[in-house]
C-alpha cells in the first residue's frame, strides 16, 4: 500500500503524502500574504466594517455580520448564502472561503498538545515570531497530579495562541489534547496521554480544555451555544484508538474489538468527562474501526453518544484522511468514495481533515446518497464555534495580545515548574539524594540524553522541516553546570546505542567525578506516532553503558530516565552502585534545569507514575492488539493497568518517593451511604462468585438514582521529615467482595498538597456515591452495588469501609 506507506511517513508530522505536506506548508506561507485572509496585525475580525469597505462589499447585505442576531441565526444566514459547491469547499481542514461573501480561507488544523506547535499547517512561525513555549510532554505533566497546574498550562498556551492569531500566524481551532488511555506499555503515543487511568485522563482533559477555552467570567454560562471560546480545543482520538503500528498491524487497518463494558468504563469515560466537564468544542474521531465500524462512520458513537447523550456543543472532525482510510485501508463495505463521505456525514462527522469531503460530497449529493441539509448542519456546527471564538466579531479581552506575550519569563518558568512537579523519584538508597554542592563539585554527566534538547520536547512540538522552536533549551549538561563542574560524555551515538565504542570515555569520566549522572532512555525513534514498541527494554547497548559506568564510578551514581512508556530497569533497581533513579518523562525545553534542581534538592520531587511499569516478559503474555483490560484466563492474558493487573511490576502505578516523609491520619469519615429509591426503581442483578452470598438487592442502575448522596473523607497529612515538600494524596474505591469481573480498585480522587517540614494540613475529599462507588457491569450498565465497599488511601496507608444500602 504505497499510498498509506508514504502517508504514514508524513503523518508522524503532518498530513497525507510527503508531497502534500510540502503543499500544505506552501499554502500556509501564502496565506500570510494573501489579501483575502487574516494577515499580519492589520487583521482584526471578519465583520469589521472597514474590511468590508476595502473589499468593496456591502456589509449590510450579510446578516451573519449582525452581532445583534443569535449565533445560530447568523451561522444559518452564512450557510444559506452559499451555493452547494461553495458549501462543500468549506468542509476540508483547508477551507476555501467565499470571496463574494467576504469570507476568507480558514485553516482549521492547528495543534497545541503541550505548547503551540507547527505540526498543523494553521500555525506558522517565522522571523516575526520564531518561538513558543514548549512544556513537558503530557505523560510527565500528568505525573504532577496537579489539576490546577494542568489548567494553568492551558491558559498560557491559549494566550500564546491568541497572540499568534492576532499576528495572522495561527487559527483559533486546536486539535488537542490527546486523551486515549495508555492501555498497554508498548503503544507509541503514551507520551501524548495523561496515562492509564480513565479518571485521571478525563480530569486532565477537562482541565486542559478549560485552560485553553475558558474566557474569564464565562465559565458558567448557561447557554453553551454562545459561551465564548478563548480558542477551541478538541479531544481526540475517539474511540478505542491505541494501536499505531505493531508487528504489521497499523491503525489504518486495525479493528479494535472491545466489550461494551470496557468501552463504557475505560475507552469512553475520558471523552465523556472532556465533553461534559470540559465543555470541549470539538472531538476528533479516530482511524481505527471499533467492532467492525470505522469510528468516523459510526452514528452510534458520533450522533448518539457525543451529540445526544453528552450534549456536545461544537464540531466533530476526522483524524487526517480518516475518510480516505475507510475506503483504501479498511475497505469498509466496499465503499466508493461517495459512499464513504455520505456515510460519515450522516453519522455526524462535520469536518474532514483531508480532501475527501471537498472532492466527493458534490457527487454524493448528486447521486442521492446524502442530503444537502446534512451539509448545512455540519457547516452550522463549524461556524458557531468560530463565532464563539470571536472570528467574526473579535474578542476584546485578547485584542492587545502580541509578540511580547509569547515566551514570557513567566511561561518559561511555568514550563520548568511543570517538569519539576512531574519528575518522579523511583529509588533513593541512603538516601543519596539530594546532592549538596559542597561535597559534589565535579559531576560526570553521561549518556545519550545528557546533552538532550529536541528529544526533551517530544512530538507535536516543532516540525524540523518548518521554522519554529522553543523559546530556548536548557539541556541536562546546561542544568548541571549551574551546580558543579560537568564532565560530559555521550556514551552512545544516539538512544538506539547500536555499538559500545563510545562507552569507555563515559566510564573514564565517572572514575574521577564526585558524582555520576547517567541520562538515558528512549526518544521518538523508539516510541512515537506510527511506531509502537516491540519490547520494554532500554535499547541497544544502553544497559551495558549503565552497568559499566556504575561499576567504575568513584561517587554515587544517579540514573535519569527519559521515557514515556515504562522500561524494565530491574537491573538498575537492584544494582547497589546505582543509588538513585529518576523518571523525567520528556521534560520539555527547560528539562535540564528541572532535573538538576531535583538532583541538588532545589526542588523536592513529588511526581507519581501515571502508568504501571511492567516487567519485560509482560509483552509475551498478550498481544498489543487485544483490547481488553480484564484478565482473560482462557488465553492466559494477565489483565492491564493497576485496575486489573495483579502480577509483579517494576514500579506500580502511583509510585513515587520524596526527600521527606508524610504521615496520614484519618480525621473524619462517613461510614455509610443510603441511596434513595424512587417508587418504580427495581433491583438490578449482578454476578457474584459461587462461594459468596449475593445480596437480595445486589445493585441499582445509576440512571434510576438521583445520585445526590456524597461521602466525605478528611485526612490530616503531616510532613514528618526534615524538608518542605509536596505530597500527592491518592484515594481509591473497591467494590464489595465477590462481584465477578470487576476491578481490583479504582482511583476516585487525588490532591497535591505542599506542606512545610513539621507542619500538617487537612485534606478534604467529597465523593459522589454514584460516581465514586459505581461500577460498570458486564452488560455495560452503570450500577451502584449494594454492600460493603472500601475506600483506600494511597498505597494502603489507610482504608475504611463504606456500607451502601438503599431506602425508599
Ligand atoms: C466492490 O466494488 C467494486 C466497484 O464498485 C466492484 O467491482 C466489486 O465487485 C465490489 N466487490 C465486492 C466484494 O462487492
Ligand atoms: C526575564 O528573565 C531574565 C533573566 O532570566 C531577565 O534578565 C529579564 O529582565 C526578565 N524579563 C522580565 C520582563 O522580567
Ligand atoms: C550539545 O548539543 C548542542 C546541539 O544541540 C551542540 O551545539 C553542543 O555543542 C553540544 N554540547 C556538547 C558539550 O557536546
Ligand atoms: C504517624 O501517625 C501515627 C498515627 O497517628 C502515629 O502513631 C505515628 O507516631 C506517626 N509517626 C510519626 C513519625 O509522626
Ligand atoms: C479533625 O476534624 C475536626 C472536626 O471534624 C476538626 O475540629 C479538627 O481540627 C480536625 N483535626 C485536624 C488535626 O485538622
Ligand atoms: C471463592 O472463589 C474464588 C474463585 O471463584 C476464589 O478465588 C476464592 O479464593 C474463593 N474464596 C473462598 C473464601 O473460598
TrEMBL record:
InterPro entries: BXL (IPR044993), Fn3-like (IPR026891), GH (IPR017853), Glyco_hydro_3_C (IPR002772), Glyco_hydro_3_C_sf (IPR036881), Glyco_hydro_3_N (IPR001764), Glyco_hydro_3_N_sf (IPR036962), Ig-like_fold (IPR013783). Residues 1-21 form the signal peptide. The keyword Repressor does not apply. The lineage of its organism: Eukaryota, Viridiplantae, Streptophyta, Embryophyta, Tracheophyta. GO terms for biological process: arabinan catabolic process; xylan catabolic process. Gene3D superfamilies: Glycoside hydrolase family 3 C-terminal domain, Glycoside hydrolase, family 3, N-terminal domain, Immunoglobulins. Residues 727-797 form the Fibronectin type III-like domain. Keywords: Glycosidase, Hydrolase, Signal. GO terms for molecular function: alpha-L-arabinofuranosidase activity; xylan 1,4-beta-xylosidase activity. This is Fibronectin type III-like domain-containing protein. It comes from Quercus lobata.
Amino acid at each position: 500500500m504505497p499510498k498509506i506507506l508514504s502517508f504514514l511517513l508524513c503523518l508522524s508530522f503532518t498530513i497525507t503524502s510527503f508531497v502534500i505536506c510540502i503543499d500544505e506548508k506552501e499554502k500556509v506561507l501564502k496565506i500570510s500574504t494573501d489579501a483575502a485572509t487574516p494577515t499580519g496585525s492589520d487583521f482584526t475580525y471578519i465583520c469589521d466594517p472597514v474590511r468590508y469597505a476595502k473589499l468593496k462589499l456591502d456589509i449590510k447585505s450579510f446578516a451573519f455580520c449582525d452581532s445583534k442576531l443569535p449565533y445560530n441565526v447568523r451561522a444559518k444566514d452564512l450557510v444559506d448564502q452559499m451555493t452547494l459547491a461553495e458549501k462543500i469547499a468549506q468542509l476540508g481542514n483547508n477551507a476555501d472561503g467565499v470571496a463574494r461573501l467576504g469570507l476568507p480561507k480558514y485553516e482549521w488544523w492547528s495543534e497545541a498538545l503541550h505548547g503551540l506547535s507547527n505540526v498543523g499547517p494553521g500555525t506558522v512561525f517565522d522571523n516575526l515570531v520564531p518561538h513558543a513555549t514548549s512544556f513537558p510532554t503530557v505523560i510527565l505533566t500528568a505525573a504532577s497530579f496537579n489539576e490546577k497546574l494542568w489548567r494553568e498550562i492551558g491558559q498560557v498556551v491559549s494566550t500564546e495562541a491568541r497572540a499568534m492569531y492576532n499576528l495572522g500566524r495561527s487559527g483559533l481551532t486546536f486539535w488537542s489534547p490527546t486523551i486515549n488511555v495508555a492501555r498497554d506499555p508498548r503503544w507509541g503515543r503514551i507520551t501524548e496521554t495523561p496515562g492509564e487511568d480513565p479518571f485521571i485522563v478525563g480530569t486532565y482533559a477537562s482541565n486542559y480544555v478549560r485552560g485553553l477555552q475558558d474566557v474569564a467570567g464565562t465559565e458558567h454560562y448557561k447557554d453553551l451555544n454562545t459561551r465564548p471560546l478563548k480558542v477551541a480545543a478538541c479531544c481526540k482520538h475517539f474511540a478505542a484508538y491505541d494501536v499505531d503500528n505493531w508487528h504489521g498491524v497499523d491503525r489504518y487497518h486495525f479493528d479494535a474489538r472491545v466489550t461494551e463494558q470496557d468501552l463504557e468504563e475505560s475507552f469512553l469515560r475520558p471523552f465523556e468527562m472532556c465533553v461534559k466537564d470540559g465543555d470541549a468544542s470539538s472531538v476528533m474521531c479516530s482511524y481505527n474501526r471499533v467492532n467492525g465500524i470505522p469510528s468516523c462512520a459510526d452514528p452510534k458513537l458520533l450522533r448518539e453518544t457525543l451529540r445526544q447523550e453528552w450534549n456536545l456543543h461544537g464540531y466533530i472532525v476526522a483524524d487526517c484522511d480518516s475518510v480516505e482510510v475507510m475506503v483504501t485501508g479498511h475497505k469498509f463495505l466496499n465503499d466508493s468514495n461517495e459512499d464513504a463521505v455520505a456515510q460519515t456525514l450522516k453519522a455526524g462527522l462535520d469536518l474532514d481533515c483531508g480532501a475527501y469531503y471537498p472532492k466527493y460530497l458534490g457527487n454524493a449529493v448528486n447521486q442521492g446518497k446524502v442530503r444537502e441539509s446534512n451539509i448545512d448542519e455540519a457547516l452550522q456546527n463549524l461556524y458557531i464555534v468560530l463565532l464563539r471564538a470571536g472570528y467574526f466579531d473579535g474578542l476584546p479581552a485578547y485584542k492587545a495580545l502580541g509578540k511580547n506575550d509569547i515566551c514570557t519569563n513567566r511561561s518559561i518558568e511555568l514550563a520548568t515548574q511543570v517538569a519539576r512537579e512531574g519528575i518522579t523519584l523511583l529509588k533513593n538508597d541512603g538516601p543519596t539524594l539530594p546532592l549538596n554542592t559542597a561535597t559534589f563539585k565535579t559531576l560526570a554527566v553521561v549518556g545519550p540524553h545528557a546533552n538532550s534538547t529536541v528529544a526533551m520536547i517530544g512530538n507535536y512540538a516543532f516540525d524540523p522541516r518548518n521554522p519554529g522552536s522553543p523559546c530556548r533549551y536548557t539541556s541536562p549538561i546546561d542544568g548541571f553546570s549551574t551546580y558543579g563542574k560537568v564532565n560530559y560524555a555521550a556514551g552512545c551515538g544516539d538512544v538506539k546505542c547500536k555499538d559500545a565504542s563510545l562507552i569507555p570515555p563515559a566510564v573514564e569520566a565517572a572514575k574521577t567525578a564526585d558524582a555520576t549522572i547517567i541520562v538515558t532512555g528512549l526518544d521518538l525513534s523508539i516510541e512515537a506516532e506510527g511506531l509502537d514498541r516491540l519490547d520494554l527494554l532500554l535499547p541497544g547497548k544502553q544497559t551495558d553503558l549503565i552497568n559499566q559506568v556504575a561499576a567504575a564510578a568513584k561517587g554515587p551514581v544517579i540514573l535519569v530516565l527519559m521515557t514515556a512508556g515504562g522500561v524494565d530497569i530491574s537491573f538498575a533497581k537492584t544494582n547497589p552502585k546505582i543509588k538513585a533513579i529518576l523518571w523525567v518523562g520528556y521534560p520539555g525545553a527547560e528539562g535540564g534545569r528541572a532535573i538538576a534542581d531535583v538532583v541538588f534538592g532545589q526542588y523536592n520531587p513529588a511526581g507519581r507514575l501515571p502508568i504501571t511499569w511492567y516487567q519485560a516478559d509482560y509483552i509475551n503474555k498478550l498481544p498489543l492488539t487485544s483490547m481488553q483490560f480484564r484478565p482473560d484466563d482462557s488465553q492466559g492474558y494477565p489483565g492491564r493497568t493497576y485496575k486489573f493487573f495483579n502480577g509483579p511490576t517494576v514500579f506500580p502505578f502511583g509510585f513515587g518517593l520524596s526527600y521527606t516523609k508524610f504521615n496520614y491520619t484519618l480525621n473524619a469519615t462517613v461510614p455509610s451511604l443510603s441511596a434513595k429509591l424512587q417508587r418504580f426503581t427495581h433491583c438490578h442483578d449482578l454476578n457474584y462468585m459461587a462461594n459468596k452470598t449475593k445480596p437480595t438487592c445486589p445493585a441499582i442502575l445509576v440512571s434510576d438514582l438521583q445520585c445526590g448522596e456524597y461521602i466525605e473523607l478528611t485526612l490530616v497529612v503531616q510532613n514528618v521529615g526534615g524538608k518542605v515538600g509536596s505530597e500527592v494524596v491518592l484515594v481509591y474505591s473497591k467494590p464489595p467482595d465477590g462481584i465477578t469481573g470487576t476491578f481490583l480498585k479504582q482511583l476516585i480522587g487525588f490532591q497535591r498538597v505542599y506542606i512545610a517540614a513539621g507542619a500538617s494540613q487537612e485534606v478534604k475529599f467529597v465523593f459522589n456515591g454514584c460516581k465514586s462507588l459505581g461500577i460498570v457491569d458486564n452488560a455495560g450498565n452503570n450500577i451502584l452495588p449494594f454492600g460493603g465497599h472500601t475506600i483506600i488511601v494511597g498505597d494502603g496507608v489507610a482504608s475504611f469501609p463504606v456500607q451502601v444500602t438503599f431506602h425508599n
